[in-house]
Amino acid sequence: MYYSALTPFNKTLHPPIPHHHPKLITTIRSVLQYNRRPQLAGETPRVVVITSGKGGVGKTTTTANVGLSLARLGHSVVAVDADVGLRNLDLLLGLENRVNYTVVEVLNGDCRLDQALVRDKRWPNFQLLCISKPRSKLPMGFGGKALVWLVDALKVREEGCPDFILIDCPAGIDAGFITAITPANEAVLVTTPDITSLRDADRVTGLLECDGIRDIKMIVNRVRTDMIKGEDMMSVLDVQEMLGLALLGVIPEDTEVIRSTNRGYPLVLNKPPTMAGMAFEQAAWRLVEQDSMKAVMVEEEPKKRGFFSFFGG
Ligand SMILES: Nc1ncnc2c1ncn2[C@@H]1O[C@H](COP(=O)(O)OP(=O)(O)OP(=O)(O)O)[C@@H](O)[C@H]1O
Ligand SMILES: [Mg+2]
Which annotated residues bind ATP (predicted)? Predict the structure, then answer.
């Protein structure tokens, strides 16, 4: 018996994340594409900060993939790269050459807000907004209030208020983090199943709650079933018990993530879909419906003793 990370099941229609089984993958693809669209819950714009505490656990990957999944589900999305100085959401999305203006220039009066918004040609209802130029420092006085102003300005645009404003938060819990969480009313906490990431996630949860953000859901990223089976990695159930947060998604470790990062082509656009891509897509579904999933304990099927078992197969 082992605690499964990749076989959670959900109370609603969302399909379970499959093991590598071609039949299951086909079924899930059809459920995701043809069955129904998720119902948007809550008031718009849903302002969601994607945060973690620890760096490098997958915040930007999550913002890009969940953001594009939301756009594919028909929602209008503005993804804000609030990782000042070390921004890389534009790279992951393959939009780096199209960012001419940033929020800093909008605030200085050097350009209009719509000039700083970069529309994705693949999914025009997805737009990217960067806070500042790479390796630049933020002007004095730029803080949470500036982001609240930005969210208010996005609400009253001519083309209408976006359904989702996703804020890609910088690592750590200093000024950049505080600025990024200020306008948010929901948070997605990304963690990996290791103790350092969990400790930071726990600290961040406390800070988010202090800031009045009650709706906090977690994504457990880079999960490896083989390591969980070998008891070399914490299970998702363990993570959930330690953090006590609702689970938005479980993303397997997948080399395709790195490949897609380097190509500037987010995973969820891949054809055929990959395991991690489908998991991000499912997380987006739950985000839309303000739903969560359950990690469950599964019994391993006893091995069938066939003809080759005679030879130790
Ligand atoms: N599920 C996954 N499988 C394999 N690699 C992954 C996965 N998720 C993220 N990565 C890789 O981990 C690295 C860090 O990811 P990412 O930049 O999204 O993290 P981050 O939390 O935004 O980092 P930072 O704190 O520096 O902003 C990237 O190289 C990415 O490709
Ligand atoms: Mg990042």
Answer: 54-61
